[in-house]
Amino acid sequence: MKATIDAQQEIILASAKQAKDLQDAETQRDKLTAANVAALQAAASRQVTPGEIAAWLPKQLATPQPITFTIPAATAQNPTPNATASIPQADLPVLRDRVEKCQECAAKLTTSEADVSSRDQRLILAGEELSAMTKERNAAVAAAKGGGFWSRMKRSGKWLAIGAGAGAAALCGFGHCK
């Protein structure tokens, strides 16, 4: 039993190290992703005016032919005129594929977030199960050793009383008590 417990302890320690390494890698990925997202958000937020946005968007889309944006001058009758985008027909399939890819990523992200939440719940349940199994194992080890201190003391006391009673009965049976 001791050998089995020692072997299992080695496995538990190795698993704990692997779990920590995985957690460290996940933390690194999270930091890198946060930095990338912050850089993307900062670049987008620097584009404030309609002209800046119109110049920035074609660079982000990377289409075969440039998309052009026309922003009419503001007038008293129309202080915020609508911008007009001119998209070459050759860019339409590329834009379609980009939109499809964006929608696909959004769907995968939603599923991945749900999977992570489910995984976290499963890990909590596995931890509870592991705690219960650890308590069960500890109880089995204690039972194999004869129980806890008080239980061994009680058992020893009982056998001591039985032995003393049997010894007294034997002495009295041989006529020592007369």
Key traits:
two-stranded antiparallel ribbon; 4 helices; mainly alpha; 178 residues
Would you spell out the secondary-structure blueprint of this structure?
Layout: H1 2-45, H2 50-61, E1 68-70, E2 84-86, H3 92-144, H4 149-173
Antiparallel strand pairs: 1-2
Question: Can you describe this structure?
Answer:
The protein is mainly alpha-helical and 178 residues long. The protein has a domain at 94-145. Helix content is 75%, strand content 3%. It has four helices and two strands. The protein has helices spanning 2-45, 50-61, 92-144, 149-173; strands spanning 68-70, 84-86. Strands 1-2 form a two-stranded antiparallel ribbon. The protein is rod-shaped. The mean pLDDT is 88.
Q: Compute the average pLDDT.
A: 88
Into which percentage range does the β-strand content fall? under 5%
Shape, please? rod-shaped
Assembly status? single chain
Q: Give me the count of strands.
A: 2
Helix content bin = over 70%
